[in-house]
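Friendly challenge for the regulars: who can give me the structure tokens for this chain first? No prize, just bragging rights.
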Amino acid sequence: LQTTSVARSRADLKQHVRLMELKRIETAMLAMTDPVFVLDAVGTLIFVNNIGEILLNSGQRGEERQGLEAIPELQKLGSDTQRRATAARTRQIELTIQTDGGNASYRATGVNLKESDGTPAGVLILLRDMSAELSQKTRHAEFVSSVSHELKTPLASIKAFLAEYQKRAAKEGV
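First reply, four minutes later:
Bragging rights claimed.
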């Protein structure tokens, strides 16, 4: 009888430790500044952090979105990541999402989650806002284009001058 109560106490302690670990993980994910979504093994949305909740409800007027159906690309990423778990642990996509503030570009990464015995537990989807990076790439391309154009103009004049100089030099026999 005493062995049974010790075993039960150990099981209760393990359960308590597991719940505390889950609470710490949940607290960390809620504090993240990037949207985080967690799907269970059948693809049902079971966790969304605050930023993810804002993104799911962005652009809606008086109606709540239900799960990842609001962003079909993320729903597809979740199912593709889970379906191809044996081929790759993670998958990435880039997408643009209409928000209240305009369009936002994201890189979404889907990661397969597994139970301790290796069975599929679901998918974690993390979004990283790429808007600033894409804007910087655009500014860089515009700068290179402008510099290239500005360099072509004097080069064309120099080429024309050299061609004229060569013609004169050939006439004069120099």
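The first helix runs from residue 2 to 31. Residues 24 and 30 are 10 Å apart (CA to CA). Your move, everyone else.
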